[in-house]
Amino acid sequence: MTELLITGGLVVDGTGAPPRTADVAISGGLVEAVGDLAGRSAVRVLSAEGHVVCPGFVDVHTHSDLTLLSNPLAHSKIRQGVTTEVIGNCGLGVTPVAGDPAELRGAAGYLDLDPAIRWGWHDLPGYLDVLAAARPSVNVAALAAHIPLRAGVVGFADRAAEPAELSRMCGLLDDALEAGAAGASTGLMYAPLTYAREEELVALGRTVASRDRLFSWHIRDYSDNLLDSVRQVLRVAETTGCRTQISHLAAVGQRNWGKAARALELIDAARSRGADVAADMYPYLAGNAPLSQLLPAWAQAGGEAAMRERLAGSAVRRRVREEWRDLPNGWPDLTVSRVPADRPGLTGRTLADLGGADAALDLLAEYGNAVLMVAGGRSEDDLLSVLRHPATIIGSDGQALDPDGPTGLGTPHPRSYGCYPRLFGDYVRTGRLPLAETVRKCTGAAAARAGIGDRGELVPGKAADVVLFDPGRITDQATYTEPQHYPAGIRAVIVNGQVAVEEGTHRGTRAGAVLRAGHGG
């Protein structure tokens, strides 16, 4: 007998096919059948009349590496319909752990929201075992992150990797790919990756290409040098033949508005030459990053501790302030979203209100990479051009957060709570984006990009990750000033055939799987 029968919904199957009224049968964690299933017996019948029934959202760009250990129920993600997260993005990751673990943990401050989490692993298999033991509510695939690779082999110095070091990094990367990593990621705005030369990126790309996995890029610059940064990605992609993803493609600063469309033209030209290049984006006009991302590369050499000590010096501070005179964003565009201690009067305020450059330097000297900001300065026209492009998929760039736990401090970016409901409420319902194609970008296309072949489409034999939402009611309720609110209009979320969220309530279900590429997942 069918275990769960979803009846009468508007099925949007994730392939890009037109919506159709149909039933969906689920058994054994898999989609059993889709169509007119009238008369079929089931243990449970769930009426979906008036609702869209689609695959669970596959969030290809997340930073939940550590928050899923603090918050296995993945409240902020699963309640918005995310059933699979791809972690390890932007070069930020937690394995391999070589040398002093405190140095790597300092470099990964953006991920490290709960100090109670113990780092008891040394490599990707050990970390994935810890994650599986936590039994998250969502499925998780991991990219091998560039920062741990470089930090463990080269360290945090501003220099090129030597040939033997390149070989060692590629060996460690291949070990991670063999262990099930879905690919690799780099983040060239983050130390020590700011010091990586192009030959290093080519070497990593060739290693990823040899396993037919994904290479995801947080590029060197999203503002004045956006186009040159995209050109670098395309050179490496065409040199290596690697499946390549440009993360959160946006143009920052009003003087750079319009460059996103020009970047897409560069991508189209490379694709016409045979390069396998795509991009991802989220439906917001502000991003979220460590405040230290604003620092010049020289100020971050030697690791987080050295950076903080350096920023105590008056001569260094003068030099940084001078280099900050021409930032693409002004201090009113930058809001402090989190500091390690929940100090009243800091989070939710702009750096202009707090004192501009001096306030930023004080925070960085005291808290290092753990100070987070929300940064605006983007164009709606640029955003729409990226969201509409056929090679773009959706990735939240957020984290699985628990508003009642350690990960819920501060005023995080609202995308962690409302990315997908915002997309369907603000962009699809208003006619700016088409329903079936937008679902495809969130599901089938996203899963394919990450190499997750058994998810993302409501077709028989694939995993039964499903979302039911009311197309007239779905909306995000998380704002920049009050971000920790769950969305409206999500009727149910099903992971591997088990109902995890129903009528706004998390049922405590933890049916997610850790997906290891090349290992049957």
Q: What is the structure about, briefly put?
A:
By secondary structure, this protein is α/β, with parallel strands linked by helices. It has helices at 67-70, 75-78, 101-107, 124-134, 146-153, 163-178, 198-210, 226-240, 259-272, 304-310, 314-323, 351-354, 357-367, 380-388, 415-428, 435-442, 444-449, and strands at residues 2-11, 20-27, 30-35, 42-47, 52-55, 57-59, 82-87, 139-145, 183-187, 214-218, 243-246, 277-281, 287-290, 334-338, 372-375, 392-394, 466-469, 490-495, 498-502, 505-506, 514-515.
Structural overview:
The chain has 521 residues and is α/β, with parallel strands linked by helices. The protein has three domains: 106 residues, Roll (Urease, subunit C, domain 1); 302 residues, TIM Barrel, CATH 3.20.20; 87 residues, no CATH class. Helix 7 packs across helix 8. The longest helix has 16 residues. The radius of gyration is 22 Å and the shape is globular. It starts with a strand and ends in a 6-residue tail after the last strand.
